[in-house]
Amino acid sequence: MSSTNRTISKLYTWSFISILSALCLLFMLLPKSFFSELENRSLQAVPQFTWKKLFDGSFTKDAETYVTDHFPFRDQWVQSKSVMEQIRLQSENNGIYRGKDGYLFEKLEEPDYGKLTQYTDAVNQFASRYPSQNITFLLAPTSIGLYSDKLPLLAQSYSQQLIHQFIGQQVEHSLSWLDGFTFLEPMKNSDKPLYYKTDHHWTTYGAYLAYKAYAEQMGWKPLEEDQFQINTVTNSFLGSFHTRSLFSGVKPDSIQIYEPKQTINKELYIADTDTTSSSLYDPSYLDKKDKYSYFQGGVHALMQIRSDLAEQQTDLDKLLIVKDSYAHSMLPFLTDHVRELHVIDIRYYNGSISGYMQEHQINDALLLFNSTTFASEQNILKLKYQG
What is the pTM of this model? Predict the structure, then answer.
């Protein structure tokens, strides 16, 4: 090897070592943040060493995640990756498609039907314990289910309608089945959006349609839209799909709330934090990335909502809602019919749901999930447990 080549080789080697050393030094010296506003998620905390964690591999996994999450200038690297994908004219980044008309979509693949059968069996077992009571399962499609025609060219998506048909066939004989396609699809071309374009949730209008369908199924008279004051609380909502993809040039969504013109006093109790509020909304989240948490302050294992309803306004005394976050924008509508809403997020509540119903003498329940969550959430199996 010539002296020139040896010099170049040494230069490359020492440059690499210098860059690596600088990054290690920055990793140790830079302050650590344990929540990413850009990605809207908690970052890995310093892993705690135990021999058990070492032998089962969890310590190594946590350590790797910790280094990845706190890598120097991580936010800039994440944004740069997204920009490079767009320069390459990629219409997908981190599992999110960039569709037509400003819509972002999460990839939808064929579910594991074996696991899905286990989840529907859990629903059936839960319903079988209350044969004389009113148990309803409302399953909401996500935006890709209704707007697959807006996917980018050559993008593949499994049929969400097939998923709903399978789930419906499994559970419809044990409880009241309410398929979200039945009330959302007729309105898919409405000038009012059913889903946020940058987020995985339905809009408040989509939630209103779900409330109306559920109320009619329950034999209640739902409030019409003209009985609400509809207010826009923000025009700068960039939701979870944008957080994951970081596509540039995306137009933010607006968040609206429907407030009944005939006001009713309401009280929200959050058991997780042992706090009580007279509002179902938390305005502090409008200044944060996670603006959807404006509804009830985000996800909680257990909430209780009480409404000061007159006798003639009351359709039901108590209702248990077992749900994911799709329920958050629908709950305010239900408070105009039910005196007590008991709201359990099955992902975080670790008690017996059946035991909770018995303890609080609740006879009616609503299971409310979007199909993507239901098809992938093993905590659904908690419905089997008795107390």
Answer: 0.81
